[in-house]
Amino acid sequence: MNLANALTLSRILMTPLLMWFLLTRRTSQALIVFLIAGITDGLDGLIARLFHQKSRFGAILDPLADKFLLVSSFLILGHVSAIPLWLVTVVVARDVLIVLGTAFLFLFLFRVEVQPSSIGKLTTLAQLLAVLLAMSSSLVDVFPWHYLVFAITAILSVASGTQYMRKGIAIMRSQVLPDRSKT
Predict the structure, then answer these.
(1) How far is 180 from 177, CA to CA, in rounded Å?
(2) Is the peptide bond prior to 63 cis by the omega test (within 30 degrees of 0)?
(3) Which of the ends of the chain has fewer CB neighbours closer than 10 A, N or C?
């Protein structure tokens, strides 16, 4: 296992600790774990590029680590009423749809390149910011900014979810249906 993948794996392993801190309302400790996880997210990609450690395993593991961290955070923060349930529903539904859609494509042997889109990256950034603001709200006054960030997060989540769904349908069509322009 290379260093980039080890950092990604460490993010997955930090998630239960983050969840515990959130559930026990140890916000300061949760913020520290979340920030460390965020740093590893940036570092794993940087190290993979700089030291030529990109791998298919890493390309699959990195977005799964992000989803595990973010979905867990949204679920717990929704449970403790730090994030509204409507936003939790939007974020979790999007990620479940993406994971199930990707699993479906892999299961039925479609050729899939796991590649985040620009709007997908913006969505992840917005989700990270929403979680960060929700955790910070008990420590500092972030009102009314968190409402704006929550709305932007929901809009981006729906837009990127729709984009990934269309991309998945296009992959299936291109690999199953014959090209009619050649007939």
Answers:
(1) 8
(2) no
(3) C
**Total-model pTM:** 0.89
> Pick from 42, 53, 50: which is nearest to 10 by CA?
42
Cβ neighbours for 148, distance < 8 A, ≥ 6 positions apart: none
What is the identity of the amino acid at 8? T
Q: What is the pLDDT along the chain (183 residues), one digit of tens a residue?
A: 899 999 999 999 999 999 999 999 999 999 999 999 999 998 998 999 999 999 989 988 998 999 999 999 999 999 999 999 999 999 999 999 999 998 899 898 788 877 889 999 899 999 999 999 999 887 787 778 889 999 999 999 999 999 999 999 998 888 876 665 555
What is the rounded CA–CA span in Å between residue 75 and residue 88? 6
The tokens for 151 are: 């709305």
Q: What is the DSSP string of 69-121?
A: HHHHHHHHHHHTTSS-HHHHHHHHHHHHHHHHHHHHHHHTT--------HHHH
